[in-house]
UniProtKB/TrEMBL annotation:
Alphabetical list of SUPFAM superfamilies matching this protein: CofE-like (SSF144010)
GO MF term list: coenzyme F420-0:L-glutamate ligase activity
Top-level taxon in the UniProt lineage: Bacteria
Enzyme Commission number(s) of this protein: 6.3.2.31
Organism: Angustibacter luteus
Protein's name in the database: Coenzyme F420-0:L-glutamate ligase
Coenzyme F420:L-glutamate ligase-like domain boundaries: 21-216
Length: 347
């Protein structure tokens, strides 16, 4: 583990792109091509390589016509799904490990009609690449395989470490003291992700430069291969945001995945949103008829008292997932009916 006294923090850092790499194809000697492009690698450098060229060298190509099927096959579970003008978009837990859009299946900078898949074991690929580089004469360096993802609560994308070898991926400062002498209790610097993000400032999809060298982090470069970037993934016990808010509500109400149309990223009529909430509320076999007002501002539930009460409460929860708020009639159930009002203000 790294020292806890701040001695590992570099005073200076440099990042340089590696231009001149040819188009990578299946079976290419990626280590040899990277070593030739890198030139003067030094002991302690970190070589950051886009997952895209790793996937190309491995031949991880699929037909773009079957993209939704490919994304499904590369997904462990769906976190959130929305309809967009371009089709159905999903954020999923990928076979490769991270939670990301479309399981990392990517159509950019690939041959027309094809998509690229992420390597299933990016840490393993980083280790194999590092060994091949060392065998070809590279000094003691670390390797980070990077990819791009969005982030909860933040607009835009940034690169992160999909795989890593020979690098301290987390600088655990818990138990050390800050500059004011106060103990640090939660600070764990995600060094590998910070390295990947820094490298992306000089490489990227638009520039066609898929690799970079970060210099100045020799204190984080290790002789052994290390645990890899997979230790940065949260387990289910520490994942507070395991589902999108719509999916969390539907899961709690027992709605089978995929059985209800997902919301759209574009504005939808109130009546459409309310009918979707009613569909969610009725899951479970309740014998209740629900009439939705033409404008969506109210519902009438018909059935016995217990069923109407149960569906009414479920409807209030389902409306919340639509960013709506509902109210049940103040005088409650009468004459086999229960009235529900939809308040359009966000819940």
């Amino acid at each position: 583990m790294p020292a806890r006294d701040g001695a590992l923090t570099p005073a200076e850092l440099s990042v340089r792109a590696l231009p001149g790499l040819p188009e990578i194809a299946a079976g290419d000697d990626l280590a040899g091509l990277l070593l030739a492009a890198a030139g003067d690698l030094a002991d302690g450098d970190v070589l950051v390589v886009s997952s895209k060229i790793v996937s190309k060298a491995l031949g991880l190509v699929a037909d773009a016509a079957d993209r939704e099927d490919v994304v499904r096959a590369q997904s462990v579970r769906v976190v959130a799904g929305r309809r967009t003008p371009r089709g159905f978009a999903q954020v999923v837990e990928s076979v490769a490990g991270p939670v990301m859009a479309a399981a990392g299946v990517d159509a950019s900078n690939t041959a027309p009609g094809t998509v690229l898949l992420l390597p299933a074991d990016a840490d393993g690929e980083a280790r194999r690449l590092r060994r091949a580089l060392r065998a070809a004469g590279a000094p003691r360096i670390a390797v980070v395989v990077s990819d791009t993802a969005g982030r909860a609560w933040r607009t835009g994308q940034t690169d992160f470490a999909l795989g890593a070898a020979g690098l301290v991926v987390v600088d655990d400062l818990r138990g050390s003291l800050d500059a004011g002498g106060q103990p640090l209790e939660v600070t764990e610097r995600a060094v590998a992700d910070e390295v990947a993000a820094a490298a992306d400032l000089v490489k990227g999809k638009a520039s066609g430069v898929p690799a970079a060298v970060v210099r100045g982090l020799a204190a984080f470069v290790t002789d052994d291969e290390g645990p890899g970037a997979s230790i940065l993934l949260r387990d289910s016990g520490s994942d507070w945001f395991r589902y999108g808010h719509v999916e969390a509500v539907q899961a709690a109400l027992g709605v089978p995945p995929g059985s209800v149309e997902p919301p759209s990223v574009l504005p939808e009529p109130l009546s459409h949103r309310v009918r979707r909430a009613v569909q969610v509320a009725l899951v479970g076999g309740f014998r209740v008829q629900v009439d939705v007002a033409a404008d969506g501002a109210g519902c009438t539930l018909h059935g016995d008292a217990f069923a109407c009460g149960a569906v009414g409460q479920r409807l209030l929860v389902a409306l919340w997932a639509e960013d709506l708020r509902g109210e049940l009639a103040a005088d409650g159930y009468r004459d086999g009916r229960l009235e529900a009002t939809v308040v359009t203000a966000p819940g």
